[in-house]
């Protein structure tokens, strides 16, 4: 049977099917991937509106989804010509050589069959219309090319690639049919049959054996029965064609094929049960709190609240106190900067405030202290002390400092400000000021007192 005679028996099963192009030109419908399966091929130039070129990069991928598994005979690709064959061979062909064509049941080319790998064409010998015979069964026809860093390619290869397709035609029949215009059903219903004679050439997914009369054995499904079923509650209910579980999933799994693990916060068969709110997640099989409790809880199932005097401890079952500067559930809250440390349970500033702050939460900043009235000095007594012993002068200075402190304290109290921080600052300033008096005294001399 010649290739020409097979044309009569098959149809272009890629026509108007969903397609995809990697690194397409953004926001340009004139170069959409679907242009390569719309049946138009009268204008193979860039601006003809019938092609699907892509950006030039290190990898190039284009595929068409036949939507179901088909029996394929051959594939034809019409490459972008730009402005004629001369331009194709002098400006485009070096970006195309080295390409591959795959047929797969998924978009992953490596899970499919390699129909063709170019390791022979040069920029001057690659045809602008390429055809390869590929008698396989599959759902996706994938074009792929690459120029990877560090790889030495033959002379004439470009540094980048792109998928320059104007039309891709896939000739064959839907799985289970053959003959003129694919109008005959295969005699053996579980087979992919010869496109001309109808004889069995391979089994559909889920079947095996002579003429594909036997379903996959327990626990297996798919093409050639080589895929393992997921975590079905009853493996005899794993559907032999696609692996879906006809009954519920085992504990810890969910999804049509019961292959997906439970998400955080769920457990049990089909992952339908929610973890206890007091757990930090839970065991996806039985719901136990294996990963620990949420702050403030303890116990195997995190069912017991921490004791009142333990609130604010870490998640290791309320045994480790918060470090200095932290408080609250799981010790994640930070004490206020104004606190000199804080209560590890509620964050209150039990240990006092840092300098410049006051209040129960040390939330009030101290205002500048009011200026107290000047202390009264006995000028006559001061003058007399100039002639006395320096030690007596020091005693007088100290007594004056104390009087000044008491006077200022009374002033602050009468102003309604009983702020500890102001009193402390006032005392410190008063003593420092009067101490300078004594340090400056020399025998026979006393500093003139302030008015």
TrEMBL record:
Taxonomic superkingdom: Eukaryota
Keyword list, A-Z: EGF-like domain
Transmembrane region(s): none
InterPro entries with a match to the protein in the record: Galactose-bd-like_sf, MEGF10/SREC1/2-like
Keyword Repressor in record: no
GO MF entry, a single one: scavenger receptor activity
UniProt protein name: Multiple epidermal growth factor-like domains 10
Organism: Magallana gigas
